[in-house]
Design a protein that fits this description.
The structure is a single chain. The chain is of the alpha+beta class and 146 residues long. It is built from three helices and six strands. It has a four-stranded antiparallel sheet with strand order 1-2-6-5, covered by helices on one side. The longest helix has 23 residues. The radius of gyration is 17 Å and the shape is elongated. It starts with 5 loop residues before the first helix and ends with a helix. The mean pLDDT is 86.
Length: 146
């Protein structure tokens, strides 16, 4: 497989992230937003970094209730993105069965949580911010498409 140009990879990966977020919403019911998309290409592969904002609703300002809800949203979100693989075609696929433990194609980071309590009115008064970096390797092409 020939290496991508930065222009080609950027165009493909932005479309792939849109599809990925649609799939995430369809599977989990959580509507999220990606930002700060940073694609990079190299001789042996490519990578993309992006930040993800995941809004959720907290019904009670008590720390116990808040952390319980946060943990539920985090488990669903991280559980989904841990099973996503970036293929050499710059497509994300959802691997039902986790790839081998030594597979090093994703790094996930927790960037923080924002909590706005203004009484009981309003939805999605909380936000979890995550960042993901996915790697693809050109020499894995046959593994997916061979």
């Amino acid at each position: 497989m020939e290496p991508y140009s930065i222009e080609e990879f950027t165009q493909k990966i932005k479309k792939s992230i849109q599809v990925l977020l649609f799939l995430f919403e369809a599977k989990t019911g959580i509507k999220s937003k990606a930002s700060n998309i940073q694609p990079h290409v190299g001789d042996k592969g490519a990578e993309v970094y992006f930040e993800l904002e995941v809004p959720f609703e907290t019904l009670d300002p008590d720390i116990g209730s808040f952390t319980f809800t946060l943990n539920k949203v985090d488990d669903v979100t991280v559980g989904f993105f841990n099973k996503v693989v970036l293929t050499p075609k710059a497509d994300f696929i959802y691997a039902k069965h986790k790839q081998p433990e030594d597979h090093d194609d994703m790094v996930g980071l927790c960037m923080g949580v924002n909590y706005e309590w203004s009484g009981h009115e309003g939805q999605n008064n909380s936000k979890m911010m995550l960042a993901f970096e996915y790697y693809l390797y050109y020499d894995e092409y046959d593994q997916y498409y061979g």
